[in-house]
Write a structure and sequence with these properties.
The complex is a heterotrimer of chains A (384), B (313) and C (92).
Chain A: E1 3-8, H1 9-20, E2 24-27, H2 34-45, E3 52-55, H3 59-72, E4 77-80, H4 82-87, H5 89-97, E5 103-108, H6 122-126, E6 133-136, H7 140-155, E7 163-168, E8 176-181, H8 184-191, E9 208-209, H9 218-247, E10 254-257, E11 264-269, H10 272-285, E12 290-295, E13 297-299, H11 303-309, E14 315-320, H12 330-338, E15 345-350, H13 360-368
Parallel strand pairs in A: 2-3, 4-5, 5-7, 6-7, 11-12, 11-14, 14-15
Antiparallel strand pairs in A: 1-8, 6-13, 10-12
Helix pairs in contact in A: 1-2, 1-7, 3-5, 7-9, 10-13, 11-12
Chain B: H1 3-10, H2 29-39, E1 44-48, H3 52-57, E2 69-70, H4 77-93, E3 104-110, H5 112-116, H6 119-128, E4 133-138, E5 164-165, E6 168-169, H7 178-183, E7 189-194, H8 198-210, E8 215-220, H9 224-228, H10 234-243, E9 250-253, E10 256-259, H11 269-272, H12 287-307, E11 308-310
Parallel strand pairs in B: 1-2, 1-3, 3-4, 4-8, 7-8, 10-11
Antiparallel strand pairs in B: 5-6, 7-9, 9-10
Chain C: E1 33-37, H1 47-51, E2 57-60, E3 63-67, H2 77-81, E4 87-91
Antiparallel strand pairs in C: 1-4, 2-3
The chains are: A alpha/beta (384), B alpha/beta (313), C alpha+beta (92).
Chain lengths: 384, 313, 92
């Protein structure tokens, strides 16, 4: 009973939301997430979901209302990008610390300035320490899949954290692909009913939530939260297994593409993996032992699995679609920590900021040519 | 049955806000919170913005609250309340809540979290028509962080960021008319009240909760530390604000203004003279400032009277 | 009461239930004076109960019974608002 439709990533996410049919969706528009909320709003207007959409007056209020709704006892979803995420960043940290199981689609877009509406991962990286789960889709199908899986991960009593489903702005959000949708009933059964331990609307059992903590307790409360994020990795694998039984598609913490006997590997997040896979296939045809490690789960970072997957490699190149000026780019830093002590030759490369395309020739150069720190950049390339 | 006895009875033996908190000796805020919460008969959920009330009552692992209570951040109480209210609406619609009374959502925020940093969220929530009661306990400055000026601080008041000094007479700007801003959102119920005028406040709470839509209460609340008066004299200080027409008590129901109380219209010196934060206005040479304040109060009072359809004699 | 000292045993998200939360005895804030009442004058108006910032006036049902000195901070508002001057602040 396959329902395959030609959908953009944004539309695919909206259909996942339709099927999950959350109680409340507080949301504020920003490119390139807008197709998500517009498509969803139309679906609700046509009675295909009965969600209470709250058109708030800023993203900060979107995440704030989301916390209120989620802790009140309502399944809550939202969507944002870039500056919207930056504006709500304060509240994202709080949502995680208050253990609000909100699911939010993030249409990855560059942070200002200059203002730019195209894809890079700087928005995700801004909140990488916030304590939320971040899962990166490669394409529209995966965006749909992860959006259906996300409530199960977020709401698991061992996790109870916000989950961000990240999909590249324009490249995924606005590009149409064939997407296979699960039957509505399957999704309803898969996500199950929503509950939180201390629903605020339960007035018979009042709790005080969002306390003030002095140095005598803050540290412990934070550690407790970090432990939940560690557990989230195991929960992701459990949910991925369940989802695979339902759909035939596996969406685990990482994807090892032709990595088993690879000596040279690239590591990347998001849609660029598609380009890299094409180059890997070409190189393999030329008898090069090339491979790709695509990370789906950036937070929680699957350190052990990454180290194991890259065990046989001699050269690993990490591609970051975000920079950390004055320091080490985020994914590069994670890989350096994961591979510490191994004798792998590790290089890091920043690419694609502000939506700059990464060409197959750039990827090939990383595998076989002289690697440069910035890929596809005009001007001086060899920066120490 | 007297209103006060009714308020006691509504509690059903459980104080919504109990002792053990670290609000200052003589703080005006608890009276506002307790009057509001004990007037409301329905079950209540409180959303509290960051500030004195929130910080002093919920130092982990203690709490002074016997009702469900939520704090998220400083500027977003109205947005959080919008979320809680929306969840209740969605869950009721889907028959996912136990049958019974609707839970009343009440926001408590100080003037900082209402007039300044909280203004956007409040405005958005009012425009969207979420049904919750927003109570501003207005003590006219950022008290919790050390008495810094807010846009609710009156003209001429000395605060730590608008201090009176050799070259300064305190805050040089007039306070914002937050009640008027709320009224501009066409919400069913808006009122100005005062902490120690508890009977009037309680009546207004009832009307606010019964209104079919958003309600806003701006409640003048004294701060002995920030205003500079003996804690014991709270009621007299608030009385002075009301009797001098500095803080009129009125309500606006579906855009019709109704004066709640006609004060003596005592000279504004009675209000200014009751607190240290205005003491510098009594320096020789500052008479012009006091006259300015009196003129401001008189003009606003006349304008309010002109808007009132209903006024006691 | 649960041992709250380790991160493993703290309530999730620091969510606290009033029934089990510890309470601070703020009666220690008083600086030498406490309220005292002449019950024969008391008309049970309950204004002191409403005005008290620390919820430190005790009732039995709807009848005034006294002051909870564990929490009274000694602000003296009760003495000021009592309409029949039944309450006075006296040395401890």
């Amino acid at each position: 009973m396959s329902d395959v439709r030609l959908l953009t990533g944004g539309e695919a996410v909206a259909h996942a939301m339709r099927q999950v049919d959350p109680d409340v969706v507080p949301v504020y528009p920003i490119t390139p997430q807008t197709p998500i909320i517009q498509t969803f709003a139309k679906l609700v207007a046509d009675g295909q979901a009965s969600t209470e959409i709250v058109n708030v007056e800023s993203e900060h209020s979107a995440m704030s209302a989301a916390i209120g709704a989620a802790l009140a006892g309502g399944r809550t979803m939202s969507a944002t990008s870039s500056q919207g995420l930056a504006l709500m960043a304060e509240v994202v940290y709080i949502a995680a610390s208050m253990r609000a199981p909100i699911v939010m689609a993030l249409g990855n877009r560059a942070l200002s300035g200059p203002i730019n509406i195209h894809c890079d991962h700087s928005d995700s990286m801004l909140i990488r320490d916030s304590g939320v789960v971040q899962l990166f889709a490669e394409n529209a199908q995966e965006a749909y899949d992860l959006m259906v899986m996300a409530p199960r991960i977020a709401e698991d009593p061992r996790v109870l954290l916000p989950v961000l489903v990240c999909l590249d702005g324009f490249t995924i959000t606005h590009s149409a692909e064939p997407v296979s949708l699960l039957p509505d009933d399957d999704v309803t059964r898969f996500v199950g009913p929503y509950s939180v331990p201390n629903a605020v609307l339960d007035t018979t059992s009042p709790t005080t939530q969002g306390p003030f903590a002095m140095p005598d307790y803050y540290f412990e409360l934070r550690r407790q939260q970090a432990a939940a994020l560690e557990t989230a990795l195991d929960v992701l694998e459990e949910v991925a297994l369940d989802f695979e039984r339902l759909s035939g598609r596996r969406n685990g913490a990482l994807e090892a593409y032709r990595l088993e006997d690879a000596t040279r590997a690239l590591v990347a997040l998001g849609s660029t993996a598609g380009t890299i896979k094409d180059v890997v296939d070409e190189l393999r045809d030329e008898h090069e032992l090339a491979g790709l490690l695509r990370l789906v789960s950036f937070r929680t970072f699957p350190t052990a699995a990454v180290a194991a997957a890259l065990d046989e490699c001699t050269h690993v190149a990490v591609l970051d679609r975000a920079d950390s000026p004055g320091g080490t780019p985020p994914l590069h830093a994670e890989l350096a920590a994961a591979l510490y002590g191994s004798d792998v030759e590790l290089t890091g490369h920043v690419y694609g900021l502000g939506g700059r395309d990464l060409h197959p020739s750039d990827v090939r150069a990383v595998f076989t040519g002289t690697p440069t720190p910035y890929l596809g950049l005009r001007g001086e390339r060899c920066l120490v | 049955m007297s209103r006060l006895k009714t308020i006691v009875r509504n509690q059903r033996g459980v104080q919504p806000l109990r002792g053990g908190h670290s609000l200052c000796q003589g703080c005006g805020i608890p009276m506002v919170a307790r009057t509001v919460l004990s007037t409301i008969r329905q079950p209540v959920v409180v959303v509290n913005a960051t500030g004195c009330l929130e910080v002093a009552t919920t130092r982990f692992p203690s709490t002074a609250w016997n009702v469900p209570w939520l704090h998220v951040a400083f500027e977003n109480a109205a947005a959080v309340a919008s979320g809680v209210e929306s969840a209740q609406r969605a869950l009721r619609r889907r028959h996912a809540l136990p049958a019974g009374q609707e839970v009343a959502v009440v926001v408590f925020a100080g003037d900082g979290g209402t007039y300044d940093i909280g203004l956007q969220a409040l405005s958005g929530a009012r425009e969207r028509g979420h049904r919750f009661l927003f109570v501003c306990y207005d003590n006219e400055a950022y008290m919790n962080t050390g008495v810094q000026r807010s846009s609710a601080t009156p003209f001429g008041a000395s605060t730590t960021t608008s201090p009176a000094g050799l070259e300064s007479f305190g805050k040089a700007q007039r306070r914002k008319d937050m009640t008027a801003i709320a009224i501009a959102h066409h919400v069913p119920y808006v009122a100005q009240a005062a902490s120690t005028h508890w009977h009037d406040l309680s009546v207004k709470v009832e009307r606010a909760v019964a209104a079919d839509g958003p309600a806003f209460l701006n409640v003048l609340t004294d701060c002995p530390v920030g205003w500079g008066h003996e804690p014991q004299l709270s009621r007299r200080v608030i009385d002075a604000a009301v009797e001098t027409c500095f803080w009129p008590l009125y309500e606006v129901v579906d855009s019709r203004y109704r004066l709640s109380y006609r004060p003596q219209h005592a000279p504004v010196e009675e209000w200014l003279g009751s607190q240290q934060r205005f003491a510098h206005l009594f320096r020789p040479g500052s008479e012009g400032l006091v006259r300015q304040i009196q003129d401001q109060v008189d003009a606003e009072w006349d304008a309010l009277l002109a808007r009132c359809d209903d006024a006691p004699a | 009461m649960a041992d709250l000292s380790t991160w493993e045993t703290l309530p999730v998200a620091g969510a606290v239930r009033p029934g089990v939360a510890p309470r601070t005895l703020t009666g220690g804030w008083r600086t030498g004076e406490r309220p005292a009442v002449d019950v024969s004058l008391c008309v049970n108006c309950l204004l002191c109960w409403l005005y008290c910032p620390d919820s430190a006036v005790t009732l039995s049902g709807e009848t005034f019974t006294g002051f909870d000195l564990d929490y009274c901070k000694g602000c003296g508002i009760c003495a000021d608002v009592c309409p029949v001057a039944a309450i006075a602040m006296v040395p401890e």
